[in-house]
Amino acid sequence: MTRHAADATTRFTLDYRSEAIGRSRIIHADCFEWLSRVPENSLHAVVTDPPYGVKDYDFGQIEKRANGNGGIWRIPPSFDGAERAPLPRFTALSKNERETLRRFFVEWGKVVKHALRPGGHVFIASNTFLSQMVFNALVEGGLEFRGQLIRLVRTFRGGDRPKNAEEEFPDVSSLPRGGYEPWGILRKPLLPKMKVSECLREFQTGGIRRISDDQPFSDVILSGRTPQRERDIADHPSLKPQAFLRQVVSAALPLGEGLITDTFMGSGSTIAAAEAVGLRAVGVERHANYYEMSRTAIPKLAALKVEAEEAAQEELEFPSR
Length: 321
Ligand SMILES: C[S@@+](CC[C@H](N)C(=O)[O-])C[C@H]1O[C@@H](n2cnc3c(N)ncnc32)[C@H](O)[C@@H]1O
Description:
The chain is of the alpha/beta class. About 35% of the residues lie in helices and about 15% in strands. The protein has helices at about 5-10, 30-35, 60-65, 95-115, 130-140, 195-205, 230-235, 240-250, 270-275, 290-305, 305-315; strands spanning about 15-20, 25-30, 45-50, 115-125, 145-150, 180-185, 220, 260, 280-285. Strands 1-2-9-8-3-4-6-5-7 form a nine-stranded mixed β-sheet, with helices on both faces. The structure holds S-adenosylmethionine. S-adenosylmethionine binds near residues 284 and 290. S-adenosylmethionine binds near residues 30, 238 and 266.
């Protein structure tokens, strides 16, 4: 790593435990606190996969801060959430649980808006049951909705016959079998009357990077499930595949320069993807075990050559006929 590379991310360390990995940096912090403390208009893009376990959203303390005057708050020890909550059945969330999730994303949208440069993009993983509510909440937090990125991937959700009446209604499923994962594409609003070209010049943000001269980035990506060899490197329950993430991080920085941030870093798959394609990223994780895991997982995931294998897997799952 060059001295220049480390310097570009050092200012985001603040007083948290942190280390440089390649040209990127990982930070052990709560992202709500961290985002509110980094300089305004400093991050170029966010690519992230937030927690969707209801207990993860028990964040009364965060909301108190976010509704205040933008000052700094400290997370009480009980908030550290050392254990990961089991995934809820999203279809069965109570009204209160849905409201808690909504508030979580409104507040996250507000602190992201503070930290992002005008025109900076957010790519955020979601799921079919919650995406509509999550994207609305982010808009309420001040971000602009720019559409969805569809990760085509076979899931095991849905497709079942009505419970306890399977024989009576053999030709019916309660829900379609899931075949995609929706990712929200949002943006911090440009300055008033600013054009995308002006935003690109001033902030290096505002647009999405093309794949090539004749190919713009597409909002549908054919993807397989996360390969076993990536799971062997990073034992995180929500590990996203490198082949997919490398395409997303490449799109997130329109000029191929600046900083990508993953505020819910987990085991560091986004940071690894950025490293693999030669970009710089900052990852924030509050869970000590996952922070530790990312230290070793990022260089190994980044070193993987994934294209050929992933393409083969995709062909198996979505034969091109
Ligand atoms: C869905 S996982 C992301 C996993 C990641 N996609 C990967 O491939 O490893 C969400 C992560 O966010 C972390 N997290 C939850 N709340 C957080 C917060 N307020 N600040 C920082 N990290 C948080 C959780 O510990 C978890 O590791």
